[in-house]
């Protein structure tokens, strides 16, 4: 089961987050949720949410 961990406001930010989480060894999906506003959901397996949140926080604050 996939869980949304973040909604990125642009494709550039979504790609950056997806790439960094993948580099850390996580399974990651990104999908458009609103093409007119270009918002993208970042999803990870439910079992990895806690670990991904720590890495995501460091990505967002860098």
How is this structure best described in words?
- The model has no long low-confidence stretch (mean pLDDT about 95).
- This protein has a single domain, classed as Hypothetical protein rpa1041 (Alpha-Beta Plaits).
- The protein is built from two helices and three strands, in the order βαββα.
- The chain has a three-stranded antiparallel β-sheet.
- It is an alpha+beta fold.
- The protein is globular.
- The protein has helices at about 10-25, 50-60; strands at about 1-10, 30-35, 40-45.
- A hairpin with a 4-residue loop joins strand 2 and strand 3.
- This is Glutamate decarboxylase.
Quick tags:
62 residues, alpha+beta, Alpha-Beta Plaits, three-stranded antiparallel beta sheet, 40% helix, 32% strand, globular
Summarize the structure.
The protein is α+β, with helices and mostly antiparallel strands. The protein has 2 helices and 3 strands; from the N terminus they run E-H-E-E-H.
């Amino acid at each position: 089961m996939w869980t949304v961990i973040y909604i990125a406001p642009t494709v550039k930010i979504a790609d950056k987050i997806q790439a960094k989480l993948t580099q850390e060894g996580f399974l990651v999906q990104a999908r458009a949720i609103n093409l007119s506003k270009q918002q993208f959901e970042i999803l990870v397996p439910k079992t990895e949410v806690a670990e991904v949140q720590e890495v995501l926080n460091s990505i967002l604050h860098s």
